[in-house]
Automatic annotation (TrEMBL):
<dbReference type="Pfam" id="PF05876">
    <property type="entry name" value="GpA_ATPase"/>
</dbReference>
<feature type="region of interest" description="Disordered">
    <location>
        <begin position="632"/>
        <end position="687"/>
    </location>
</feature>
<protein>
    <submittedName>
        <fullName>Phage tail protein</fullName>
    </submittedName>
</protein>
<feature type="domain" description="Terminase large subunit GpA endonuclease">
    <location>
        <begin position="325"/>
        <end position="623"/>
    </location>
</feature>
<dbReference type="InterPro" id="IPR008866">
    <property type="entry name" value="Phage_lambda_GpA-like"/>
</dbReference>
<dbReference type="Pfam" id="PF20454">
    <property type="entry name" value="GpA_nuclease"/>
</dbReference>
<feature type="signal peptide">
    <location>
        <begin position="1"/>
        <end position="34"/>
    </location>
</feature>
<feature type="domain" description="Phage terminase large subunit GpA ATPase">
    <location>
        <begin position="67"/>
        <end position="316"/>
    </location>
</feature>
<dbReference type="InterPro" id="IPR051220">
    <property type="entry name" value="TFA_Chaperone"/>
</dbReference>
<dbReference type="InterPro" id="IPR046454">
    <property type="entry name" value="GpA_endonuclease"/>
</dbReference>
<dbReference type="InterPro" id="IPR046453">
    <property type="entry name" value="GpA_ATPase"/>
</dbReference>
<dbReference type="GO" id="GO:0005524">
    <property type="term" value="F:ATP binding"/>
</dbReference>
<dbReference type="GO" id="GO:0004519">
    <property type="term" value="F:endonuclease activity"/>
</dbReference>
<dbReference type="GO" id="GO:0016887">
    <property type="term" value="F:ATP hydrolysis activity"/>
</dbReference>
<dbReference type="InterPro" id="IPR027417">
    <property type="entry name" value="P-loop_NTPase"/>
</dbReference>
<keyword id="KW-0732">Signal</keyword>
Amino acid sequence: MKRLPSLPRPRSGLKKRALAAAMALHLVASQPIAAAAASWWPVLTPPPRLLPSQWADQKRFLSAEASAEPGRWDTSRAEFQRGIMDAGADPLVEEVIVIKSAQVGWTEIINNLVGYYIDQDPSPILVLQPTLEMAETWSKDRLAPMVRDTPCLAAKLSTAKARDSGNTVLHKTFAGGRLTIAGANSPSSLASRPIRIVIADELGRYPASAGTEGDPLSLAYKRTNNFWNRRRFAGSTPGIAGSCAVEAKWELSDKRRFFVPCHSCGTVQVLTWSQVRWEKTKAGTHRPDTAHYRCAHCDAKWTDADRHRAVRLGEWRATAPFTGIAGFHIWEAYSPWVKLSQTVKDFLEKRGNPETYKTWVNTALGETWVEKGEAPDWQRLYDRRETSMAIGTPPEWAGLLVGSCDVQRGGGGRIEMDVWAFGPRRQRALVEHVEVEGSIADPATWAKLDEQVAREWISADGRPMRLTRVGVDSGDGENTMYVYAWCRRHAGLAMALKGRESLSAAQPITGPTWMDVTINGRKLPRGVRKWDIGTSMLKTELYGDLSLERPVDGEPYPDGYVFLPDGTGDEWIKQLVAEYLAVTRNKRTGRLKREWQQSRPRNEALDNAVYARAVAISLGVDRWSDARWAQQRGADRRRVPEAAPATTAQVPASTRPAAPKPAQARSKPKINPLTGKPRGSHLGGRR
């Protein structure tokens, strides 16, 4: 047989795979086809392209210091993660957005995507964290252990060395690509460099602008424009509806939800919070340990084991048209690491406070928080006034009275004080509205307020009650020093308050802060204490409570119910609902924001209701047990005069004659009319 000439020596630019193919063809000419195929076919066949979830199942190892379940990765443990990861390898998907709760393994999904692209599809990668500090933390605590314990990654990424400029904590190189880890708050982290893969974590916590350069996510996405096969991933727990970045991205996606089958009827469905049920004792105590899920179709009861089994059989389904963005929503009911009993327990603990409840909705349900900003209808509130309650008479369940004052300069000046009664289960009732006319600069006006504050109210069950605390709005600059001076004279009883309108205020009341007071032209350092009020969250709570319906058929009033006595005027009720939440656009950043706006000129009743609630919270009433409330009412009952007439409780305080003062021996000190205590004693209010 004639010997074939040898192949020419390849140039240095010839790829190894092309050389291997040429060698295989060379062998074909000298061997029978059948015998040659066995040797050259594997050379010509490309290695199998793994999906991200397959790569994780075959090659990923969880580290002991970064996972509660170290060892080989298993996607079937949380089956919903498969579709999210594999969307990164779908040629039709350019962008992936995940709106999620906590405890669904999102950080591990990020880790798997980074490992997949390093090992299977080397590319320039950017991982974007909210801050540089969080970027360093992720690199050290998550990435480094994964690289160390996953052999295919350890062979491609060396450990970070201070002298190795190609491999630092925030920048790593590997064959065919590089990994940059950046903070959204640092413009230099987003400096111009080509990026094919962008993975953005906790998008909801990004600043509105990276320095002066604009939206950090948009800056990061622009780095991918030169790549036809770019991939963009972003995920986060949501925030407030209307101003949440991840929500805006989700609305542009195909809105995929995870459908699971019922073990009883086989109907596929999306898990919802409304189908989570639990039992109560005969006394009405919640039992979160009995939490379970109910099928939306056949009402079959699902245990945690049934729920986990259903998730393993589930699948993602789009609920909107596909436009190149794959959107995924997932919450902790799908998570194998969360029991429904814990979800219910957290709900019961946090539902009483609007701010903690908002956090629960964001982090447990993975849903945006919708501010209940639409003001209740004043006519409905007017029509549901309590005919069994009279103006000036605290209800029999009332445990304490709180006064709240709004100081006005207009119309010659006036101080409007509302008296609110508070009782168990966050229930409250308006007792009386009082107007003190006169110039704010006139000491006589404040003397009139002294008389009102020193009054006594008789409850529906015959108990004499006085104000425990009085909160006064000090936010008006021209009135501030007069308010400070009055609060200083009544230290312990009066509280100087200042509202904070920010929707992000995390506490209903904070402080106190010592403020300077000017007395007769002389500045008195640390003259009075001031408390800051988170008015937005308290308005939201109030509107939610006002929307509660009056019970029927003898059922108890719901927690948080607001009672308005018969005789409450329509003008006062209109003031109570005089504001609403509006969505506006920030002129500087272009982002939408929500803010409170007035629908009518006067809103003193709303301000006073918010201040009274804040003062009550500062006294700790939300933590009082039924026994503590009973003790409080009992203390009032022991002070009832034996000769008190039976009809006193039905007479409004404004028309009831003042009780005669008891005679006092000369040896006894004079009684302070504000507190009922000897002059010179502490003026703190009775709790």
